[in-house]
Design brief:
This protein folds into 2 domains: about 5-65; about 85-205, no CATH class. The protein contains 7 helices and 6 strands; from the N terminus they run αααααββααββββ. The protein has helices at about 5-15, 20, 30-45, 55-65, 85-95, 140-145, 150-155; strands at about 95-105, 105-110, 165-170, 175, 185-195, 195-205. The protein is elongated. It starts with a helix and ends in a 10-residue tail after the last strand.
Length: about 220
């Protein structure tokens, strides 16, 4: 921090003597608490008419404030995601949805890439770059809403997420052997914003899933 930034922090601490212990979280170990620390320290500079302080300055201020306490505190911070970028990510997910349901508070979407994994007589989605493992023709939109979309929603409900977080649903990470024999692979993501989770994915039967795999 430069001299003016250090003075702004010291002036604030002099007027708010319990700030570090009442407003900041010592040894924060979750994204939500780290981001709360970040916002609280950034507010010091905003109040001093020093807006747009970058990540490095906030980190330096957090260490400075922690070292001034007796005993010393470890003030961990994490810069929150850009709200505009988060809103853009959500818009892309919503625009790319082929099917959407609500499952226990989670918005669950099958994305347009599902087409390459569907039987030609039961299309879902509009985008197909290459054919992959495909379901039988009776695995249609209704079946997915009762099975794979419920599974994806349950997966998302268990995630510990903070505002703006996005968690990838990678092959092998979110798969289940409960959906017939051999399992189903899921590929997608979960976004948490405005206190709500949004899941978008596509899925396909595993190689040895004879009950569901057409080809």
């Amino acid at each position: 921090m430069n001299q003016a930034q250090t003075k702004a922090v010291n002036d604030y601490l002099a007027k708010n003597t319990t700030f570090a212990t009442s407003k900041l979280h010592n040894n924060a170990n979750t994204a939500a608490l780290k981001r709360a620390n970040y916002a609280a320290i950034k507010a010091i500079f905003d109040g001093a008419k020093m807006p747009n302080m970058g990540k490095l300055i906030i980190e330096e201020a957090a260490k400075y404030i922690g070292n001034k306490q007796t005993p010393k505190l470890t003030i961990n911070v994490e810069q929150p995601p850009d709200p505009v970028m988060v809103a853009n990510k959500l818009k892309l997910m919503l625009d790319d949805a082929a099917i959407t349901i609500e499952h226990q508070g989670v918005t669950v979407m099958i994305d347009c890439d599902q087409k390459k994994h569907q039987h030609p007589d039961s299309p879902i989605g509009t985008r197909q770059t290459s054919a992959g493992n495909q379901f039988y023709d009776w695995v249609d939109a209704d079946w997915h809403q009762e099975n794979t979309m419920v599974h994806a929603g349950n997966w998302a409900r268990l995630l510990d997420m903070a505002e703006g977080d996005m968690v990838e649903m990678k092959q092998g990470v979110a798969r289940t052997d409960d959906l017939w024999t051999g399992g189903i692979h899921f590929e997608g993501k979960c976004l948490f914003t405005n206190n709500k989770k949004y899941v978008a994915f596509h899925c396909y039967p595993a190689d040895n899933n004879k009950a569901l795999r057409w080809r």
